[in-house]
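Team,

Forwarding the record for the chain on the shared tracking sheet. I've put the sequence and predicted structure together so nobody has to dig through attachments.
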Amino acid sequence: MSDDDDFHISQSGLVARSPEGHAARGMQIKGNEDVWIEIQAHTFKNWVNEKLVPSGLQVNDLANDLCDGVCLVTLVEILQKKKLRKISRPMNQHQWLENVATALRAIEQDGIKLVNIGNVDIVNGNQKLILGLIWSLIMKYQIGQSKFPPKKLMLSWLQGVLPDCRVNNFTTDWNSGVNLNALVDYCKPGLAPNWKNLDPRKGVENNRSAMSLAKKHFGIPTVLDPEYLASPYIDELSGMTYLSYFMNKDGPGYKSTLDWVRQELPDEKINNFTTDWNDGIKLNKLIRNHGGRVPPPETLRRHPDHWEDNLQKAVDAGTRLGVPPPLMKPRDLADPEVDYIGPMSYVARYMWLPRREVPQQQLRAVCTTKAVRVGEPVTFRLDFLDGSPVDPADLRVDVLGPGSRSGRVQMRPDDSGITCTFTPDEMGMHQVRVYHEKDLVDGCPFSVRAVPLIKLTPRPSGIDPCALGSTVEVLINPTEASDGRIIVTAYSPLHRPLDCPVSCTDGVYSAKFQPDEVGEWKIHVTYEGQHIQGSPFNCFVYDPHAVRVGELEGTEPDRPFTFMVDARDAGWGEARTDIVWEARSLPHTLTEIEKDLYRVTVTPPDYGK
């Protein structure tokens, strides 16, 4: 209805009072059911007509104008965005029944449960059943169906974005028009800046102004007349229908809340209030920005099996900040099919929450070592940030190696910080986490890789094993000074000779060569044509680049994955494997099934590289 229509509200404009003389607060007043039915019928008719605009059809009375099924089938087609079989110009009641049955069948097939209503009820113009049917359509296609009461979810969002309005219902709390102006101003700050100064006694005027702004700036249709919204007889379903336009996925309230979150988390790509929030990572970051004690994002697990736990950590931290838990449990928030208004209503609670100082870090961990050999010490620093010392007894230092915790950490405090040392005793990544007052210290976690310690097998008259292409230097220190000729020749595994030029420095002879074959080389050292003691010498050459890894096709978390490691062409040595996920070594088995051919089995705990 436009503002220019010559419409005078009947009973709806009256103020209903209880026996004590107080205005009724959102209750159905006995003896006036016809008033709220009138409001509801008028609102639902406007909603239907707003949806029917593309078709050119219009209804003036729901009880009379849906009976032939033409408008009803068209409405369902528009809502479901698909064509239904219908009789465009039904000539008799049988054809009316057929049209209505087509619409009801499509509605049920789309998941709407219809109870105690059939095509005869629509054709006969049963108003209460028709209103119930239209409400089911509004719930499904306008508000959104959820196993949680939509009323509570909608109220939760309104309470979050309008904390000064104390919204508790969809009826009398909106009579004055103050709250509606506040909602308009929330959706676009500055559109109704003086809402707090409005005269609550001018409800019709205030509501008309807010509805006009909402229609002009947001395209929200005035399916509910301002006179009705200002009436104490306003029914709950009419209020929910109109206000749902602000918070549906295309609504200005949804967009405003989404824009706020994007400003809070500029480094995150946030497109919705459903799948972007399932894993709990963004929610933890949002709460951390408000001073909540939540785990650092890098420590949260991203596999779906851990989403509920991530969300629970966020909710617990929010509760400590004074934000009540969401209506939906973490398990429901982790569901990719979650109704968007659940996460959105909870996120909105943080919009006006006074920010607390993020707990000040007193320490920063600094480690310049990236890799060491097994058995070599790793040293890192914990620097005092504000100059005040921290007692090592107040710290917890965890070093998580491939198998378990890796040894004891020694701490040596000084005036500017604490020097820490640990020694990895197994190959793989070692992740270091330092906690102060249960909070992870800045700079943690960090990781250090422990590489294998090469153990050389003692060989008589041998030269240390070396890699293909490296330079081998042979030193000859004669027991007596001599001017005789020393010749060094290296023979490859295929008995190919390789001359090694000899030089002398301070009486010490040396010869160099670069092996170009994998296998056992023989180094002949002769003096005046005779082998010196121990000659020929052995030198085993290996090629780590010749190790081949089998197919590494993708797998799924918690499922064993096996691949092959073939070192048969690599020469002397032993193959070792380290499998790293998110800077942590994973436990796995390495089985030698034949000489230098290995089978590796690992069970990935989560998705990732």
